[in-house]
Amino acid sequence: MKVTIVPRGTAALGYAQYTPKEQYLYNTDQLNDQICMTLGGRASEDIFFGKISTGAQNDLQQITRTAHAMVTVYGMNEKVGNVSFYDPQQENAFTKPYSDDTAKLIDYEVRHLIDAAYDRTKKLLIDKKEEVEKLANALLEKEVLFQSDVEALIGKRPYEEKKVIAAEEVAPVEETSHAIPPATSTTEQENSATESNA
Prior knowledge:
Blueprint lengths: L1 E3 L10 E3 L10 H11 L1 H10 L7 H16 L27 H28 L1 H14 L1 E3 H8 L31 H12 L1
Antiparallel strand pairs: 1-2, 1-3
Helix pairs in contact: 1-3, 1-4, 2-4, 3-4
């Protein structure tokens, strides 16, 4: 991990860089945590300065994409349900495969998901205000902090990092055959019912 306040280009006035992980599947909690993490800058402005700036534009685009995908692509919303409206063949088309009522529901659920994450992020930052101030002061002094610096200032994470399990570490699963009867057609079912009644 690397955190810096040194501007990068014209848009980013600072950034946090994390070591990339080889991870292809994410659960709901992980995506919600990502949204909260990405909202940290906007929430910090609100808490510490009492006003917000245009600095969070890219962050807001990212969280909106993630929240929208959770609701419309990954089936991670109870009200919209286990459906995916993603169709790679329709990517450049201006049609939507759902009604106006569903579109309103999607808009509401995406907004609700982001609002809940923002409230959670603000609460966490308020609870950890002293630690945030320590990090901010250290960044003003050094401009760049690495994971070891962060741990020296505020301690290690309260939970261990999840590790990817290698294939050889996983115990082999015994194969059991479960015979599944072949599906019978409605006509066959009706014929057998008629024969048994006769």
